[in-house]
Design goal:
The chain is of the alpha+beta class. The chain has 2 helices and 3 strands. A 3-stranded antiparallel beta sheet has the order 2-1-3, with no helix packed on it. Strand 1 and strand 2 form a beta hairpin. The two termini are 28 Å apart. The structure holds zinc ion (ZN).
Length: 78
């Protein structure tokens, strides 16, 4: 049996570029890897977003990887 806590601790974190909502009352943000527009808008309130850097758990299979593969390559997501 593995405890949930030790699993959490095993996830490495890295400085990650994110887009954060400029609306003070909104906590919306998105990883840059998942932002396909040059200047994305908040999914929650449609406000403009600004780029910043946060410490976030490393994602093993990120969209950045998929982007680097280029277009025309199908990814099996079953
Ligand atoms: Zn927002």
């Amino acid at each position: 049996m593995y405890s949930r806590k030790s699993t959490m601790e095993s996830i490495p974190e890295e400085m990650t570029e994110v887009w954060a909502c400029t609306n003070d009352g909104c906590k919306g943000w998105i990883r840059d890897d998942f932002a396909f527009e040059a200047e994305p808008v908040c999914q929650l309130c449609k406000s403009p977003m600004v780029k910043e850097t946060r410490m976030l758990p490393l994602l093993v299979n990120t969209n950045k990887k998929q982007k680097s593969l280029g277009k025309g390559i199908l990814i099996d997501r079953k």
